[in-house]
Amino acid sequence: MTKKNIKKKFIPHNRPTLGKQEEKVAVEVIRSGWIAQGNAVENFENDICQYLGLPPGSAVAVSSGTAALYMTLAIYNAKEKNIAIPYYCCSSLRNAVTLAGGNPILVDSKMDSPNINMETIVPSMDIAIIPHLFGIPQKISKGLSKTFIIEDCAQSLGAYVDDVPIGLQGDVGIFSFYATKLITSGGQGGMIVSRDSAFIEELINYRTFNQLDVQKHLFNFQMTDLQAAIGSAQLRQFTKFMKRREEIYLRYQDANLPLLNNESGIQPVRFRAILQTPKQAEIITALAKNNITAAIPMQQSELVGSKDNYPNASYWIHNTVSLPIYPSLRNEDVKRIIKVVRKHL
Ligand SMILES: *Cc1c(COP(=O)(O)O)cnc(C)c1O
């Protein structure tokens, strides 16, 4: 075989980091004979509390980030309330709001960031869901003190704003542990954190859906011990994961790739490496030809509503490319990615 015919190793856009530690804890749970929600779930909740500097008992594990949003909205009586959510975001937010009977009010991105423009959230909006996209957190504006704030931290566990961990700036923080997030609890999972102990109690009651004598429709949103044990194992390695993500990010930055800028006063996590470039299609095609998958972070087809009303989001939809960045990406992979991107900037 000539050298030309050797196809270069495939580099996926994303990949969970799973190894011996996850295997070990999964086997332990299986051997214990208890795999549904139990001690491992409680331990994972308290691990997250400890990580965020919250007292034990301030977190509730659920089956997904979407479930976390839905349960929060359901408990805060979102029905018929106006709920601000970003236009530029995954459908999970819209779905949770709609399922909870709320009235979603779509808000545009900022001019200098794909994150939601909080200045356009007005007091008539009762609740706002504020995601910190791509690991780049934003400070919650003081002007929103009358609005109930749900911080969506699905992409930004470990990020800080003014030395406050994200998830604690607003009234409630939610996290996702889906396979390709910063850490995963066995493919799916979510968490809700809050300092409001009455709210935590209501969440726990909701989650105990089949043991309560109530005339309410409650769904099963529980996490399993098998998932939670994997989540805790991932959290124990999180510092190492973040360090490797940062190294890769710095390699991209040192190669002068046009990455999204950070705002001041924040400490991001490198969930995504997003290029800001008008050559979106060209770069994605060139990478694909080299057996590398890059992605459009948010596509027009995923969003509802006329794009004309959301000029900033519309710009971000067409001028961003998400490059591979995850702990198992090797330096030689990063080099290959940089070489292709630089040729097409
Ligand atoms: C992934 C994600 C969600 C939904 O989490 P799931 O666990 O997939 O339901 C919500 N918001 C944001 C910003 C996300 O990235």
TrEMBL record:
SUPFAM superfamilies: PLP-dependent transferases. Keywords: Aminotransferase, Pyridoxal phosphate, Transferase. The keyword Phosphoprotein does not apply. GO terms for molecular function: transaminase activity. Signal peptide: none annotated. Belongs to the DegT/DnrJ/EryC1 family. This is DegT/DnrJ/EryC1/StrS aminotransferase family protein. It comes from Solibacillus palustris. The lineage of its organism: Bacteria, Bacillati, Bacillota, Bacilli, Bacillales.
